[in-house]
Amino acid sequence: MKFGRIAAPVLWCMPLVAAAQGTDHSQMQQAAPQAPVTHEGHESGEAARPALRVPIPVLTDADRQAANPVSSTHASGDTSIHSYTLINRLEAWDANPGAAIGWEGGGWIGQDIKRLWWRTEGERVDGSTEAANLEALYGHAFSPWWDWVVGVRQDFKPAGDRSFAAIGLQGLAPQWFEVLVTGYLGTGGQTMARFEAEYELLITNRLVLQPLLDSVLHGKSDPARGIGAGLTTIEVGARLRYEFTRRFAPYAGVSYERAFGKTADLRRAAQEDEGDLRVVAGVRIWF
Asked: CA-CA distance, 167 to 137, in Å (whole number)?
């Protein structure tokens, strides 16, 4: 049979193939080099692998210094002496007749908790000082946003000098309103209270609208100064400034002041207007 003729040689060759395969495997096993063993019992092939990276490196002093660089300003809660001055309004307007210049500003010197504050405001009309005052106050922070203040105020104009003792609160109310409330007790038994609120509305990063509300009350009349008892005046205004830098910003705006009660009567008797509308232009500076 044909099958027998073909199968016989194949069966005869199978032992030779198996022997050849066994010889090759044995030679391969003998030829495979044995990896040297290190003193720790690990093969050097494993030691050649790259070391595992630590997910969170150990912090160093250089890392801590880079995360907390030295500030160019001052640290909160420190005990060193610093200062700040703000000329909030330095402006001019048409007083009819003549030109007028007004100012309002303040600042402080001291630490984060205890400071000496100062405030000043006034105006000159046609080269003559119509009103001017200066306050010196000791302030102490009783919360992150509020200070109580106590000190003195000196009025230089109108109608000569007059001194007051002052006590009040100032700070940042909810919704970011800057608030100032101060009571005064002056010579001759004169009492006065002032409430002022400002808000800064950012139209852009440099264009800021600053509305203002300022009201003054007096406990008794002072005809020489044109002041009547009760609510004396209320001033409302808005100034739009452009901050070329945070420290320097020119502005333009409007301001309206109106007298009430007995103060309005004194103005009418002196043939003056009860209200005063001003279109102003000025500059805001701090350093």
From this structure: 8
